Amino acid sequence: MGSDLALFRRRLLKNPRQVSAIAPSSRTLARAMTLGLGPKSGPVVEFGPGTGRFTEAILARGVPPGNVTLFELDEEFVTYLREKFPGVTVHQLPAQEAARLVPPTVGTVISGLPLLSMPPEVREGIVAAAFDVLAPRGRYVQFTYGSRPPLPPETIATLGLTVNRGHKVWANLPPATVYRFRRG
Q1: Domain 4-183, what architecture?
Q2: What is the pTM assigned to this prediction?
């Protein structure tokens, strides 16, 4: 198994639109994204894990591997994730397929997907899929490089969500802000 950075660079050069980042997420961002997770958090789903930086942080917080499910499109990332994280379920499917495979008992959905670079209907489909698998008090955690939430106010209202701005992570390239969404 090669390094995370080498794999990231290779996939970025092959498919820059899908990777949609100039560098892998930092460990500091991964800690901010997984804040509040622990051994009793319940199932965790991750959309767009890439090389698994957030997955590492989820597991480091004590979430058992059997409670972690990943949705990743890139075949090479999927192969890497399956080798790197035994016991974690990895699907080579879009996030929108989550409800077909995961019961609605998930405590947290963590997303590393570049929502702001996606068409509105795809972005809304991804967030709707997250809430399809989340338990009633579950939360959807998303970061963005922008200065506003990764969903426009009208989408937040249409989906009946509340949003809390979390940490601004300066130790990331580029700096990122974490947002937590819940049902209103």
Answers
A1: 3-Layer(aba) Sandwich (3.40)
A2: 0.88
In contact, 87 and 65? CB cutoff 8 Å: yes
Choose among 36, 20, 26, 34: nearest CA to 5. 26
Instruction: Delimit the domains of the chain by residue range.
Output: 4-183
User: What pLDDT, in 10s, does the model give residues 47-92?
Assistant: 999 999 999 999 999 999 999 999 999 999 899 999 999 999 999 9
Burial 60-86 (b: 16+ CB within 10 A, else e): ebebeeebbbbbbbbeebbebbeeebe
H helices within 42-182, ranges in order? 53-60, 75-84, 98-101, 120-133, 153-158
The residues that bridge with 172 in the sheet, in sequence order, are none
Asked if the peptide bond before residue 120 counts as cis, ω within 30 degrees of 0, the response is no
pLDDT above 50: residue 10: no
